[in-house]
Give the backbone structure.
Amino acid sequence: MSESERNERRRVVAMVGNPTSDKGRGAKVDAQVLGLLEEAGRAHNFDVIDITGTSFDDSLNQARERAHEYDYLVVVGGDGMIALGANAVGCSGKPLGIVATGSGNDFARGLKLPVNRIETAVEGIVGAIVRGSHIDVDMGRVTSLDGGYAVDPSTGEECEYQESKSAEHPIDRYYAGMLSCGLDASINDRANHSHLPTGTMRYFAAVLVELTHMKRYGYHIKATLADGTTDERDIITPLLTIANSRHIGGGIEVSPYSCFSDGLLDLVWMDHVPNFGECAVAISNAYNGKLLASKVFGWKRIREIEVTRATEGDEPPVLMADGEYIGHLPFRVVAEDCALRVLVPPAVAAREVDSRQEVLNAIARDGRDPVTGQFACPDYIGSPH
């Protein structure tokens, strides 16, 4: 196709919905979004195609196999649909539009995109297409090491295999939000099976239940830190998170220092099993950005990390990222610098994705060293308020 033909060709927007979400009510939302996009397409000279499949993997395969047919991909739903979009167009330069509906929506919330405001979200996406406005954000890429293997992303169940799970079902996934490896993954799994009415309620209730019987999972980590040095050690902990974004579970700030566009990920873990008082302080700080002010938590900025099984500690649960099941360790995660292009309204594109100074101020407020992650003052115990 010549340059002139490309310029004359009508742009194509592909939409992927989640019709089975919210007990089938997702199909009505999908139809509404499709109608709004088609109406906008008639006004602004672009076509719309619906490439929604029968499952997560089927929709992902459709988005990948038909990538030559569209110029923009729009996903409709919660964080699981962000995972689908990230794995469909990540590292391709093809822009992703997000219509955040349902529960969770932590990635969209972090980017200050509309949540559960369908018409506003579509208007923003259309405005971004017409004006060519977007932002580029980081992702994490998780791949299995020898012995690691993937599971069904929707159910967490093991896939069928003939001889070797790790050879036949290797992990190779991008994620935009957080890779949950311990207690956080157990909480996410429990919330997925909850019948409470909202995502925030489901997640908070799951937190309270899981905190009552925490396990000490055994990890061996080998991390390349932000300054290029290597940190290798065993971490026996209830919680281990490798974060690109700040929020999980409908607004809990597990990783309040995370930046979307710094080319780094944040490793957060529990330094020890907290007592009742420490749990109470952590819960009180879960939504105000001060969770890491407590010595209960360890934190480091990393470029990549390998996580294998330590000789001590309990067997870690199935990994989860962006609301989807990933697989079992051992695995490697690498920060992919500004690898995901997201359609945003011009007003959003014009402002800084992250306020680096605000993050540095929060780190200083909490008494941590921004390079080592350690508390700068040996006697600093963190602020519960």
Observations:
- Residues 1-6, 379-385 have pLDDT under 50 and may be disordered.
- The radius of gyration is 21 Å.
